[in-house]
Amino acid sequence: MPKNCRSFNKFKVFGPYAWGNWSEDNWLGGAYSDVILARPNEIVTETYQEQGPFTTITEARKHAKYLMTKFARALLYLNKHSQHSTKSWGAVPVQDYSEVWWDKNVDEIDAELMKKYKIPESIRSFVMANIQARTKSNIVNYVE
């Protein structure tokens, strides 16, 4: 009988291991590629990093939007010492997605995260000016 991983029959989010192209001409961390919102029974090769699993599509959508925030990507950049991002997620807080504001757009979620973690205005301004903007349009398969 074939073995399935624990997330095979669940929702998940796929992002490339080499997330962020490291070209800092325009943005810290460079340009970030899109992420993929994956449904049950969808898999990827090892060039992608799987995040999840999530029981519901709603929770997976919220996580995918979290990855699009400047907040999360600034903290990822903090620990990213190579193209490979596997060990870089340590500074990015895990979320429970219970706050009602996770249904908002990415910019509004960014503002809520900055408030939640009491990020000083000088750092907020720096992050907003220096990390590439992304929206839910950068999430492949995002359908409400």
Beta-strand fraction estimate: 5-15%
Total number of beta strands:
4
Q: Residue-averaged pLDDT, rounded? A: 89
Work out the count of structural domains: 1
Count the helices. How many?
4
Major β-sheet annotation: 4 strands, mixed
Label the overall shape: globular
What structural class results from the helix and strand content? alpha+beta
SSE order in H/E notation? EEEHHHHE
Quick overview of this protein structure:
With 144 residues, the protein is α+β, with helices and mostly antiparallel strands.
Question: Key terms for this structure?
Answer:
144 residues, alpha+beta
Word description of this protein:
The chain has a four-stranded mixed sheet with strand order 3-1-2-4, with helices on one face. The longest helix is centred in the middle third of the chain and has 12 residues, at 57-68. It starts with 10 loop residues before the first strand and ends with a strand. 30% of the residues lie in helices and 13% in strands. It has one domain (11-140). The model has no long low-confidence stretch (mean pLDDT 89). It has helices at 57-68, 70-79, 106-116, 121-130; strands at 11-16, 35-38, 48-54, 139-140. With 144 residues, it is α+β, with helices and mostly antiparallel strands.
